[in-house]
Design a protein that fits this description.
heterodimer, A: alpha/beta, Rossmann fold, six-stranded mixed beta sheet, 11 helices, B: two-stranded antiparallel ribbon, 2 strands, binds adenosine-5'-triphosphate, binds magnesium ion
């Protein structure tokens, strides 16, 4: 059963194609990884799927509904959630408040109730706070809950973004390099966390440069190079694929 | 247990309202105090709009003008009680803010600043030019609120200065309470979130344009009520209330004191209302000294006076 279907997505910037005709599908509980060298178009693909960029061509279908170029806040209502490669943290808010922001759709109500501090407003906020604290515990940040988010380390912020994205109780979760900047232990924790989330039935779309992690947890891998899908399949198939090896070797030679 | 920001702010305000009169050198200071509270109310709205939601407005005096002139015109022409005129002004301001905010809040930063400036100028022009209705730049009389008379009948005999001092003081506390309720509510979090990262705010499901509009409308109501209170206590109002300088004053007070903190912005309102009274000893250098103070505060206490000091004294919270 397909939850998210990407059909021929493409976009160009100033006449240069950043992503070309990319298609694949994600089912509930499945971890699909998108890999490829730097600049291959992975983040751009995520931005199109999550409504941040308007695709130049192609479709995004979520749960049978065409959601192409739909505003991100409406996609959130339909169960899509994501993290960002270049962190998008609410810097001056506490770690707890950052997580609570992820509960917006569940906890927000009439402004007037909030203005008057009505019991209904407090009840909504309290329910969200319980959930948020539990999530922070899950990503190992419960002791930093009251700290200002801007003061956390890079690795902690990556986990905070996961907690915030999880707060939406998403059906499909897009993770853009969740383990970047994390040490081996932290990477393994994130690895377990992602597997756990998938096991609970969430469809996961993952971009990650840590190949060991990708090979370990992915059900399916899509390989991009210069904006095009050059291969896809299960980890074993993809890692043997000559085009993939060439793309990565080429990238490594280029990087010196 | 440490006091929450809400209780601390409200207790500070209460203490100030009650204790300050004991130190007034003359009854004139009741008037200065009332002015501080009115300005404090207007800047509390700016805290919500600018400090939390991160949106600038250089035209909010326009809403103060609407609130003020509602109190001047509605009792005379519609036979409304002045208290209802305050309400009418607030409703008109809210509707206007909604209509104006929808197109201009799509703009960012200084583009939004200029667009809102245009709105303020428009209101001020109407008040200046519609002489048949507003009597133009010379100003217009405003009816008595009548509440002081009622209190007197009930046995509480306050001078005019005292009455407006306490009335505005308690209005400010009410306004601060509303604002602080919002701060920690789901709405307040969403406002601060869109300030922190619009893109992340949208992906967690926040309807960013709608929320900006709500903040704009709420802050317009604050400015409107402040304008009404100003008109009612002076029993007279001129179009200056809607003027560009008044808009700039609101932003300056809030930023100087600390635009992200209610008590900070109110402190800014107090300082900038008091300073001109105090600085008269500098005679012709008054403006110069005022300007210098503002420049120095912005250089050395960029977050505003109150948040900067709080941060220094107890870590990292405002
Ligand atoms: N808004 C934009 N305007 C212009 N060019 C863009 C824009 N966004 C992305 N690009 C270009 O699209 C290409 C793909 O970039 P993208 O960030 O998607 O790569 P990536 O696969 O995520 O790389 P990395 O592994 O380094 O994160 C790059 O050449 C980039 O410069
Ligand atoms: Mg990327």
């Amino acid at each position: 059963m397909t939850l998210l279907s990407i059909e021929g997505l493409g976009i160009s910037f100033g006449g240069i194609a950043a992503v070309k005709n990319v298609s694949f599908r994600v089912s509930p509980g499945e971890i699909v990884s998108v890999i490829g060298p730097n600049g291959a178009g992975k983040t751009t693909l995520f931005n199109m799927i999550s409504g941040v960029y308007q695709p130049g061509s192609g479709k995004v279908v979520l749960n049978g509904e065409d959601v192409t170029a739909m505003s991100p806040h409406l996609l959130a209502r339909r169960g899509m959630s994501r993290t960002f490669q270049n962190l998008q943290i609410f810097q001056t808010m506490s770690v707890l408040e950052n997580t609570l922001a992820g509960y917006h759709l569940q906890e927000s109500g009439p402004v007037l109730a909030d203005l008057l501090n009505l019991p209904s407003s407090r009840r909504r906020a309290r329910a969200a706070e319980e959930g948020a604290r539990a999530l922070l515990k899950r990503v190992g940040l419960e002791r930093a809950a009251e700290r200002e988010a801007g003061s956390l380390s890079y690795g902690s912020l990556k986990r905070l973004e996961i907690a915030r994205a999880m707060a939406l109780k998403p059906k499909v979760l897009l993770l853009d390099e969740p383990a970047a900047g994390c040490n081996a232990v932290e990477t393994e924790e994130i690895d377990h966390l992602i597997a756990e989330i998938a096991a609970s039935g969430v469809a996961i779309l993952l971009v990650e440069h840590d190949m060991k992690m990708v090979m370990r947890i992915s059900n399916h891998i899509v390989v991009l190079d210069h904006g095009e899908k050059i291969a896809e399949g299960d980890p074993a198939t993809v890692s043997r694929d000559p085009a993939v090896i060439a793309a990565y070797l080429g990238a490594e030679h280029a990087a010196g | 247990m440490r006091l929450s920001v809400k209780s601390a702010t409200l207790l500070t305000l209460l203490a100030f309202v009650v204790v300050a009169p004991l130190f007034f050198p003359s009854s004139f200071y009741y008037r200065v105090g009332a002015l501080i509270f009115v300005n404090g109310l207007a800047v509390t709205g700016m805290v919500i709009l600018t400090g939390w939601a991160g949106q600038i407005s250089l035209g909010h005096a326009g809403f103060a003008g609407i609130g003020a002139y509602a109190c001047a015109l509605a009792p005379e022409h519609l036979g409304l009680h002045p208290a209802l005129a305050v309400l009418l002004g607030a409703v008109i301001s809210a509707v206007l803010a909604w209509l104006v905010g929808r197109p201009i809040l799509r703009l960012k930063g200084y583009y939004l600043g200029v667009a809102s400036l245009g709105f303020g100028i428009l209101v001020s022009m109407v008040l200046n030019n519609e002489r048949d209705l507003t009597r133009g730049p010379d100003g217009i009389d405003v009816a008595d609120l009548g509440l002081r008379g009622l209190l007197k009948d009930a046995g509480l005999d306050l001078s005019n200065g005292q009455f407006w001092y306490f009335f505005c003081g308690f209005s400010l506390m009410l306004g601060a309470w509303f604002a602080l309720n919002i701060f920690n509510s789901p709405t307040g979090r969403a406002l601060r979130a869109l300030h922190g990262s619009e893109i992340a705010a949208r992906t967690v499901g926040i309807d960013v344009p709608r929320l900006k509009l709500q903040a704009f409308v709420i802050s317009a109501v604050y400015a409107s009520v402040a304008g009404s209170l100003l008109a009612l206590q002076n029993k007279f109002i001129t179009p200056d209330v809607a003027g560009f300088m008044h808009s700039v004053e609101m932003v300056t007070m809030a930023v100087l004191g600390g635009v992200s903190s209610v008590i900070g912005a109110i402190f800014g309102a107090a300082v900038l209302t008091l300073l001109p009274q105090v600085l008269t000893v500098f005679a012709e250098y008054e403006q110069l000294v005022l300007g210098l103070i503002m420049v120095l505060v912005m250089i050395f206490l960029r977050e505003g006076v109150v948040p900067s000091f709080l941060r220094k004294f107890r870590g990292n919270e405002a």
